[in-house]
Amino acid sequence: MYDNNNIFAKILRNEIACKKIYEDNNSLFFNDINPQAKIHVLGIPKVNRVDFSDFILNTDEKIITSFFLSVDLVIDQLSIKKTGFRIITNSGADGGQEVPHFHVHILGGEKVK
Ligand code: 5GP
Fold this sequence. Notes:
Blueprint: H1 7-12, E1 20-23, E2 27-31, E3 39-45, H2 52-57, H3 61-77, E4 85-88, H4 92-95, E5 104-108
Antiparallel strand pairs: 1-2, 2-3, 3-5, 4-5
This protein binds guanosine-5'-monophosphate.
C-alpha cells in the first residue's frame, strides 16, 4: 500500500524543497540530501509506486520507458556517461529501502565505493 506521506510524495507535491536536476511530465531528478559520492542524484517517477516491482508491474509501459530514458538523459546531463556511474534501487527491508516511493540512485563523479 502506497503511503502518501512519504518524503518523496511531499517533494512531488512541493511541500518539501529539493535541489532539482531535471524534470519532465513523468519524472523528477534531484540531489540526495546525504550524498554517498561526488554526484548522488535520485530519480523518481511521478506515479505513486512503492518499489521496483510495483513500478514495473503496475505502470503503463510508456511511463516506464519514459522514466528510464530520463535516467539516461540525466546521466548525459551530469557528464558521467564516459567516466562511469552506478544505478541502484533499494527495495524492502533487506534492500535497505528507507523511502517507500520507487526511486533510483545515480552515483558517480568519482570511483564509487
Ligand atoms: P533509500 O534507502 O530509500 O533507497 O534511499 C533514500 C534516500 O533518500 C537516501 O539516500 C536519503 O539520503 C535520501 N533522502 C531522505 N530524505 C531526503 C530529503 O528530504 N531530501 C532529499 N533530497 N533526499 C532525501
